[in-house]
Amino acid sequence: MTINDIKHPKLKAWIEECAKMCEPDDIYLCDGSKAEYDRLMKKCVDAGLATPLAKKPNSFLFRSLPSDVARVENRTFISSVKEEDAGPTNHWIDPKELKATMRGLYKGCMHGRTMYIIPFCMGPLGSPISKNGIELTDSEYVVLNMDIMTRTGTKVLDLLGTDGEFVPCLHSVGKPLNNGEKDNGIWPCADLEHKYISHFPEEHLIWSYGSGYGGNALLGKKCFALRIASVLAREEGWMAEHMLILKLTNPEGKVKYVTGAFPSACGKTNLAMLIPTLPGWKVETVGDDIAWMKFGKDGRLYAINPEAGFFGVAPGTSEHSNKNALVAASKNTIFTNCGLTEDGDVWWEEIGYKPQGKEIVDWQGKKRPCPETDKNPKDKSQCIAHPNARFTAPASQCPCIAPNWEDPEGVPISAILFGGRRPSTIPLVHQSRNWNHGVFLGSIVGSEITAASTINAAEVGKIRRDPFAIIPFCGYNMGDYFQHWINIGKKSTEDKLPKIFYVNWFRKDSDGNFMWPGYSDNSRVLAWIFDRCDGKDNYVDTPIGFMPKENAINTDGLDDKTKKNMKELSSVDVEGWKKEIKDIRENHYPKFGKHLPKELSACLDDLEKRLSK
Ligand code: SAT
Ligand code: MN
Question: Which parts of the sequence belong to the Phosphoenolpyruvate carboxykinase GTP-utilising N-terminal domain (predicted)?
């Protein structure tokens, strides 16, 4: 197939316009086949950009440059016509100005390269909740990753027909090859000040330049499925959320679906793939990162996972923390910025064992003596794998993927979880009184800043708020986003809307030890939540919401210390909450100005009143 086979005049015109600007040597329409994947991967191996792994079938390791290892938030723009519509938490540039700057960069940027046309679908093909996109990119790495992360190829063009809607996504690594120059095994990208990850919300358009990495370049993920989709969702009355989706089955075989939003480094992927310690319970995965939710005719919210793969953080993934992810990434997987062992396997910090052999190649391609343990070195610059090293693995390879994970109708959501890393104040679990109170809980999500998560010592101990864990991924004003959540609650009734819970796996005692074991034992909390959704009398009404009755959380098999901790983990820390209210009132809510829904201020006042009774 060539561009001449494209039967969609608007799509064809857009491709031609981009090609004219970027001036690639070739244009290639991706069919999404295995043969195409193998051919492009071979091209990367031949160019010295990918290393085949002897120990993992059909799997490859890529190394990016130190200047291109993560999303670049300060180079990510919501370029709405009005600055106010981007809101206080997004970077904004006037769209006319931004487009002029980027057109200058795009001019001739694909010299010496191929422009790949990737038709892709976010969500199961044919689902009424799914949406289509077209990414144009000059990176083979992007084509390969998009192939795992989304449904790509000719079948999507068929779906589009002659006038179907699509989100146009233009991407270039920003490294033209002039005069026969070659990449020579060096990851192509542009300098930081020339990187632009731009979103034009009114046009539903994405322009990305200068980075080949992750969410900067795989435009279906954060750019489309969250930033642009959040705008579409608001316009069309649905929800695009930074949430995992899991399927929970109780010992009687009853099923409920749960979504959950957690800021980074809270174990979201681990929770999505959890292996319960509670006998008879089962967790299966529908999605690990993004949920699109729409109302069904019955007034309930139905969720799909718009993605088809996992782009997971490798370091910290072990048999203990997430065995299922390791199995998912045991074949047909792309690894980025991991260590490479002598016997041809990948390795990372906290993988659960020390690397095989005497020497290991670190993520920058340097040979190093094998470390004696898998512990994180004190000095992060000494890591073998980059702390943001990734695996890109097909979701279908996950041993606990739910058999119905691709149901085009989506799965009915019973509960929504919010959580953060909070060593104090926030109890193990509490339930909101109603939808609006749940929106309030989502709006105050955050993690305590630790020495490891900041370079600014003065910030340590403060709360970094990340409402709904969506701050870096919301395509419009966050105050309006809160309002959208309130409005969603008005479209149905409390009995049909999901119940909302705030969980905290990270409480610490006065000696700094975790009070709750976490990981697989979080199934104990999920079980309580499951029963709450059935209206079981397993709760007490407290000033902050509904909390587990004594012994309502099953602690059989936990150690005595944890059992002793249960009382503190399930009680209201009145003084802590009063401080929390002060911080929200003085530092958090004022940021949203007149865009803050009055319902949320009312919840804050109500909480304060209940606590002082
Ligand atoms: O790089 S991604 O944006 O895909 C993942 C992340 O940073 O959260
Ligand atoms: Mn994410």
Answer: 14-234
Of 222, 221, 34, 50, give the one whose Cα is nearest residue 146.
221
Mean pLDDT of 344-366: 97
The tens digit of pLDDT for each residue in 451-509 reads 877 888 888 889 999 999 999 999 999 999 999 999 999 999 999 999 999 999 999 99
- Render 341-409 in DSSP notation, one character per residue: ETTS-EE-TTSSSPPSSSEEE-TTS-EEEPPSSSSPPSSGGG-SS-TT-EEEEEGGG-TTB-TTTT-TT
CA pair distance 263, 470, nearest whole angstrom: 8
User: Looking at the annotation, which residues are catalytic?
Assistant: 266
The pTM assigned to this predicted structure is 0.97
Kindly give the number of the ligand 1 atom that is closest to the alpha carbon of 264: 8
Kindly report, residue by residue over 265-282, the tens digit of the pLDDT.
898 999 999 999 999 999
What's the pLDDT tens digit per position in 297-314? 999 999 999 999 999 999
Atom of ligand 1 nearest to the CA of 70: 1
Q: Whose CA is nearest to atom 7 of ligand 1?
A: 71
- Spatial neighbors of 410 by CB under 8 A, at least 6 apart, are 127, 129, 292, 293, 294, 296, 302, 303, 304
Confirm whether residue 222 is marked as ligand binding. Answer: yes
For residue 452, the model assigns a pLDDT of 77
Q: Sort strands 60-62 and 50-52 into parallel, antiparallel or unpaired.
A: antiparallel
222 CB within 6 A, ligand 1: yes
Q: Is 422 in the pocket of ligand 1 (CB under 6 A)?
A: no
CA separation (Å) from 312 to 183, 240, 568? 27, 20, 33
Residue 364: count of CB within 10 angstroms of its CB: 13
Mean pLDDT computed over 429-435? 98
Task: Summarize pLDDT for 76-100 with one digit per residue, the tens.
Answer: 999 999 999 999 999 999 999 999 9
Reported residue count of the chain is 613
Instruction: Kindly indicate the confidence band of residue 383, based on its pLDDT and cuts at 50, 70 and 90.
Output: very high
Token reading at 408: 């085009």
Query: Is residue 311 in contact with ligand 1, taking CB distance under 6 Å?
Result: yes
User: Is the minimum distance from the CB of 215 to ligand 1 under 6 angstroms?
Assistant: yes
Q: Which atom of ligand 1 is nearest to the CA of 214?
A: 1
Atom 5 of ligand 1 has which residue's CA nearest to it?
Answer: 215
**Residue 465 CA, ligand 2 centroid: distance in Å:** 16
Pocket test for ligand 1, best of 189, 311, 313, 337 (most atoms within 8 A of CB): 311
Distance 289 CA to ligand 1 centre (A): 10
77 lines ligand 1 (CB under 6 A): no
Mean of pLDDT values over 56-62: 98
The rounded distance, in Å, linking the Cα atoms of 547 and 501 is: 10
